[in-house]
Amino acid sequence: MTLKNPYFHQSFINNRASFSLREHKKYNWHSNDNGCFMNQWKLPFLNTHQRKKKACIVGCDTKCIKTMMVSSHGNTKTHKVKVIVAVKKCSGGGILSNFLSECVDGIKQLIGNILVLELVSVDLDQKTNLEKKTIKGHAQGVEKKERGVQYECTFELPSDFGNVGAVLVQHEHHKEMFLRSIVLHDVPYGPVHFTCNSWVQPKHDCPVKRVFFSDKSYLPSQTPCGLRRLREVELMLLRGNGEGERKSYERIYDYDVYNDLGDPDFSIDLKRPILGCSEHPYPRRCRTGREHSIAGDRFFWFSDEEFARETLSGVNPYSIQLVKEWPLRSKLDPEIYGPPESAITREIIESQIIGYRTVEEAIVEKKLFMLDYHDLFLPYVSKVREIKGTTLYGSRTLFFLTKQGTLKPLAIELTRPIMDGKPQWKQVFTPASHSTDLWLWRLAKAHVLAHDSGYHELVNHWLRTHCALEPFIIATNRQLSTMHPVYKLLHPHMRYTMEINSLAREVLICANGIIEISFSTNKYSMEISSVAYDQLWRFDLQALPNDLIHRGMALEDPNAPQGLMLTIEDYPFANDGLLIWDAIKQWVTEYINHYYSNSSVVKSDQELQAWWTEIQKVGHGDKYKEPWWPSLETPKDLIDIITTIAWIASGHHAAVNFAQYTYGGYFPNRPTIARIKMPTEDPSKEEWENFLKNPEQTLLECLPSQIQATLVMVILNLLSNHSPDEEYIGQYMEPSWAENQTIKTSFERFNKRLKEIEGIIDSRNGNYNLKNRCGAGLVPYELMKPFSGPGITGKGVPYSASI
């Protein structure tokens, strides 16, 4: 067959091996709308030998596209074969996802590559004694029926091709397809049927072509030569190799014992024996190739273990502290707030601390830890409770350090002060197995989590980073020239902070802003933040080593890394944070020592001294006379001050910010508000009966409302995002630093050390002995990894508090 002006349909650009044209001819390239895309089009991807072997003609029709393959083996005759593929109509998925899928598939259908079929001969090539080349074509959906879609494809089958014994199928549909059958019509030896009844995955999921054999049966020894290899390969694919995790598209049939009946990761009570061994003989099941440990646990947040773990490696690792004294007492005025003694008694604790006879012994051994939100929140309980839809308690939560290095919650104390003519109310809740006590414990945890969320956002995040940094930024711009080396050192740590603080005052912390709407402390939120600044904030304690020592979480030890020995060895935030702190301090030390060789240079620097004085007198003027302000007389003084400022803006902020959506996006894990009081506090008969009847409903009524939860999720998503232009600590050199070879070399060492820290953190997250950061269902602790890409990554330490 010869053509003076052959035409191509564009669908064949994706099927280069299925056609060729004679050399040195002119061709036209057409689309369905008869528009000419390109003239004088050549096929450089086909070599000369290929071009001589085949030729192809494609007819274009507005309703369907039919492929016709023409052999060019001399005068070999051909006959047309019509192939009909029946595809089951599949349901499932949302309206939007189905609509998008149909759009994608419609585009692919236009370019003719929705379903690719290859006919396989039962015979070998007589000349080569190898399998004959398959004949390929593209099928199109031409008729929609009630039960599915019918696809058609027309082939030009050479007379010497032999019988068709198999069909290879591959599709570029957006979703998997269920093939019912394939039927070849108009063949000399009658219709050939291929019963499929099988899912075929998209090419992008499973690049291996599916093979379907005809309905004719063969013993292995009787298998036609052209099908023997395909038969063996298909069986190998179905057997698998007995290794790895099964993918959704795989069709592997393998054996395994019944080792998936229990769930000991969730509860030891759910541990079950393996069936299929000498001790418990049992038939084998089909191997699923599941992961050895689950990647995530939908209900792990509900566990006491996760509740405790997040105090060390969650979004608020700054509140946990060592219990140093017993009994626990409030420092508030008992005439106003009631008896100062804690209701957490010796008996409550000693019944749970295995291996220690007394509370005093556990305290000496540094085994008791606490979240203490009692004295800060208790004065505001009465005020907050005047607001509809929220409530508040003063709270204490005690933890015990186990032999495994993890924390175990022991008790929660909730306190209501003297108010409304009622005496002080306080109650202690403990982990329990009885249903009533268990649900009360869960409710108590919800209240504590709301307290922790509020303290985290108002104090450890806003106050100690964004708010406290602003005076340093103002003074730096007012008192230090842009030529000053300290200005150049601090410049990247000031990026966008004042801008984001301004936005926070407009949206987050303003009257009736998101904080007031969504947090338990409501309109008293910023007032409580002020109390925390007055009672708790000290510049010297913002240095990470000093903070850890102050909370009893570390002791000075000159022989230990970073000069500290941690009270809890596996404290992910402290372990990783000290690496960042140490790297920052080394970089700052080399930088400062280059410009300040001795104390006289520091003392005589008028800009520097004015800067430090203004920070104390004006920026933090309400604390100007505090004795803990460090002096600025030596290079070491300056190094400590700059290191602390740089740490607050970078490591501290990263630790309390970039995991907010990870842990708080699912609001039951970190509720921002508790809306109702405990059912045991002055309960009415109806309230108590409702709790007993449906405790889960009581918990839901305590958690944030749908509006509150949705609002907080949106904000936490935004705050946890890294922008595409984020500047990470030590990643890129400031132009001014590159001007000086000594500073440039120091920065390069800084950058190299930060890259090493990334590797150290990855290694720690893979160490299953570190149970507070590695294990089934746990989120690995990556917040101190210096670098990150954009988006919500749960890692990356930017220079500044820029979000």
UniProtKB/TrEMBL annotation:
Instruction: Name the SUPFAM superfamilies for this protein.
Output: Lipase/lipooxygenase domain (PLAT/LH2 domain) (SSF49723), Lipoxigenase (SSF48484)
Q: Which residues cross the membrane?
A: none
Q: Which cofactor does it need?
A: Fe cation
Q: Record's Gene3D superfamilies?
A: 3.10.450.60, Lipoxygenase-1, Domain 2, Lipoxygenase-1, Domain 5, PLAT/LH2 domain
Q: What is its EC number?
A: 1.13.11.-
Q: Name one GO cellular component term.
A: chloroplast
Q: Where is the Lipoxygenase domain?
A: 217-803
One biological process term from GO is: lipid oxidation
Q: In which pathway is this protein known to take part?
A: Lipid metabolism; oxylipin biosynthesis
Family matches, as Pfam families: Lipoxygenase, PLAT
Name of the top EC class for this enzyme:
oxidoreductase
Q: Where in the cell is it found?
A: Cytoplasm; Plastid, Chloroplast
Q: Which domain of life is it from?
A: Eukaryota
* Chain ranges of the PLAT domain: 97-214
Q: InterPro entries, per this entry?
A: LipOase, LipOase_C, LipOase_C_sf, LipOase_CS, LipOase_Fe_BS, LipOase_plant, Lipoxy_PLAT/LH2, PLAT/LH2_dom
| Any GO molecular function | metal ion binding
Q: Which UniProt keywords apply?
A: Chloroplast, Cytoplasm, Dioxygenase, Fatty acid biosynthesis, Fatty acid metabolism, Iron, Lipid biosynthesis, Lipid metabolism, Metal-binding, Oxidoreductase, Oxylipin biosynthesis, Plastid, Transit peptide
The entry's function note states: Plant lipoxygenase may be involved in a number of diverse aspects of plant physiology including growth and development, pest resistance, and senescence or responses to wounding.
Recorded family membership: Belongs to the lipoxygenase family.
Protein name (record): Lipoxygenase
Could you tell me which species this protein originates from?
A: Glycine max (Soybean)
